[in-house]
From TrEMBL:
Biased composition (Acidic residues): 569-584
Source organism per UniProt: Daldinia eschscholtzii
Gene Ontology molecular functions: enzyme regulator activity
GO cellular component entries: proteasome regulatory particle, lid subcomplex
Keywords: Proteasome
Gene Ontology biological process terms from the UniProt entry: regulation of protein catabolic process; ubiquitin-dependent protein catabolic process
Residues annotated as domain PCI: 330-510
The keyword Protein biosynthesis is annotated on this UniProt entry: no
Segments for region (Disordered): 1-74, 169-191, 554-584
Family: Belongs to the proteasome subunit S3 family.
Name recorded for this polypeptide: PCI domain-containing protein
Length: 584
């Protein structure tokens, strides 16, 4: 009987309330779906009816070809069909417009993190910027009837596209790739009219980046001057991060204009009043981003024109913000270390430069800053009488850039004055370009002192004439003066016999009988205690405290919005708030 035929899987029929005939039919279908050789020739006719469709036929509407070769060709062509070719111009425009939503959220939530995310995207956009792309974005963002139409005209004039009309709609390809918009045309016109200042300042920064990369420094300086005046007239806390970037590029443009910075007539001197005004306003408004950026730019300007006293006065009369970005802190420490090195305060310079190298970003984008700070740090260590570690010169990213300084360290370590002078003569251009040439010239006395120390350890008695020959000095009188100064400074333990013309070294006693081991041990203990105190301070804060602060800040913003709304509607007066409410 057909109801008693065994199942293909060898199990008994399950009592599920379905008739046995249906179960038998299902087993027949399963058996027919399996291999072609398990059934007889009679069941081969049912194979054409119950064969399931292949995966390729499920995904495509057309039936598969009857031969197997056709199925293989469809599997090969499948990835090619899924590839979507995107126009690079359309992609750049979409990427630029995607930052507008971040700026809107930054204004709505009073959160600068969204603005920083928009600024971080500039590094990926700057290589793809062209005047046509910028003009198209400006034309699609601003409308002719909007209040910001004059600003858009200034942007178009800066890139040489003043003939482009405003209010142009995006193409169909861009509408597919970009975010969905409201279908109503009136809504789009309203959005075009209400362009927040953060968006046009962001577009202005992109124009600055394009002008700087295309080396249009004169036009960029003029546009940056107009932009700085516009920023100064706006009093919006959401513009702080963008304004700092504007002043940064303004200073870079002026550095590239003739006459170059060493000249007192350089344009970089002319923009100092603008930067000082921006710093004063930022201090009054408590704008941390602008304060940090402008202080660093002013220090850079003073150092480029060798106005060290003015830079020192700026550092002493201003306070660098503690909550500044890590990049600005690293730059400030580098310039401060450079000032202290020029002022012969090598210990403070060493501390600042060490902190700057540690705070330098580890990415390849900041490799130039790390190399520059390391070069100055090496020279300061040599001026302090220390020899840098060899591992510093073995770093793959630093090896080639630090090769001239490696030769310099070798000459100073041995005390060979001839090799020292040869190294300076061969790499003088490199040292001048790095800004360390004047500091390296101070190392000549250190090389001579090192040579005298080596000779005092090698010889118990040596004539001044031999010292003059070995150190390549001009006369015996200069050798006598240098030896006497080294004895007075405590560099060597020796006596000078002027009548007989020789230097006699004292017997070297036990080093552990002196105070040197105790001082070195004291320095190590002090460093360990400082590290312990910092670790204890870091452990005082409870876990996830920052999340609670973010939550409280969000609640405070919501309360401020509610109170501002009530004040506008007339339900609440400012006097009812007790003076604790600050204007938004």
């Amino acid at each position: 009987m057909p109801g008693k035929t065994p199942h293909s899987n060898g199990n008994e029929p399950v009592e599920n309330g379905v008739r046995k005939n249906q179960d038998v039919d299902m087993t027949d279908e399963k058996s027919s779906l399996k291999g072609k050789g398990k059934k007889g020739v009679k069941e081969g006719e049912d194979m054409t009816v119950v064969v399931p469709p292949s995966k390729t036929t499920k995904q495509s509407s057309q039936p598969p070809p009857p031969d197997a070769d056709g199925d293989v060709e469809m599997d090969v062509d499948k990835p090619e069909d899924l590839e979507v070719k995107v126009d690079p111009v359309t992609q750049v425009i979409t990427d630029i417009k995607s930052n507008f939503a971040l700026l809107d959220r930054a204004v709505a939530l009073f959160d600068a993190r969204f603005t920083l995310r928009a600024l971080r995207s500039i590094s990926s956009l700057r290589k793809r910027l062209t005047p046509d792309i910028l003009a198209q974005v400006i034309a699609e963002t601003f409308s002719v009837s909007s209040t910001s139409a004059s600003v858009a005209k200034q942007l178009l004039v800066a890139i040489g596209k003043e003939d482009v009309p405003l209010g142009r709609q995006a193409s169909s390809e861009m509408e597919i790739d970009s975010e969905p918009k409201a279908p109503a045309k009136n809504g789009n016109k309203k959005e075009n009219k209400e362009v927040i200042p953060e968006i046009d300042i962001f577009l202005s920064i992109l124009v600055q980046v394009y002008l700087f990369d295309s080396k249009q420094f004169q036009q960029g300086a003029e546009f940056s001057k107009y932009l700085s005046e516009r920023i100064h007239s706006l009093n919006r806390r959401t513009l702080d991060s963008l304004s700092a970037k504007v002043y940064f590029y303004y200073s870079l443009f002026c550095e590239q204009l003739a006459p170059l910075p060493p000249s007192p007539q350089s344009p970089i001197v002319a923009i100092r009043p603008t930067l000082l005004t921006a710093l004063r306003t930022a201090v009054l408004r408590k704008d941390i981003d602008i304060q940090a950026s402008v202080i660093v730019l002013l220090l850079r300007s003073y150092l480029l024109t060798s106005h060290i006293s003015q830079a020192d006065l700026l550092v002493s009369h201003t306070q660098f913000p503690e909550n500044a970005a890590n990049n600005q802190v690293a730059r400030f420490l580098y310039y401060l270390g450079r000032i202290r090195a020029i002022q012969l305060r090598y210990t403070e310079a060493h501390e600042h430069l060490t902190a700057a190298t540690r705070k330098a970003p580890a990415s390849s984008c900041a490799l130039g800053f790390a190399q520059t700070a390391t070069k100055l740090l090496l020279v300061v260590e040599l001026l302090m009488g220390d020899i840098p570690e060899r591992a510093t010169f073995r770093v793959p990213s630093m090896e080639q850039a630090l090769h001239p300084y490696f030769l310099l360290v070798q000459a100073v370590r041995v005390g060979n004055l001839e090799d020292f002078e040869v190294t300076i003569a061969e790499h003088a251009d490199t040292f001048r370009r790095d800004g360390t040439y004047s500091l390296i010239l101070r190392l000549r006395q250190n090389v001579i002192k090192t040579g005298i120390r080596m000779m005092s350890l090698s010889y118990s008695r040596i004539s001044l004439r031999d010292i003059c020959i070995r150190l390549h000095l001009g006369s015996e009188e200069s050798a006598e003066y240098i030896v006497a100064k080294a004895i007075r400074d405590g560099v060597i333990e020796a006596t000078l016999d002027r009548e007989r013309g020789f230097m006699k070294s004292k017997e070297v006693g036990d080093v552990y009988a002196t105070r040197e081991p105790g001082e070195a041990f004291h320095d190590r203990i002090r460093a360990c205690l400082a590290l312990h105190d910092e670790s204890v301070k870091a452990m005082r804060f409870p876990m996830n405290q920052h999340r609670l602060e973010l939550k409280n800040a969000q609640e405070a913003r919501e309360r401020e919005r509610e109170m501002a709304k009530e004040i506008q509607e007339g339900d609440l007066d400012e006097d009812d708030l007790g003076g604790d409410f600050e204007g938004m």
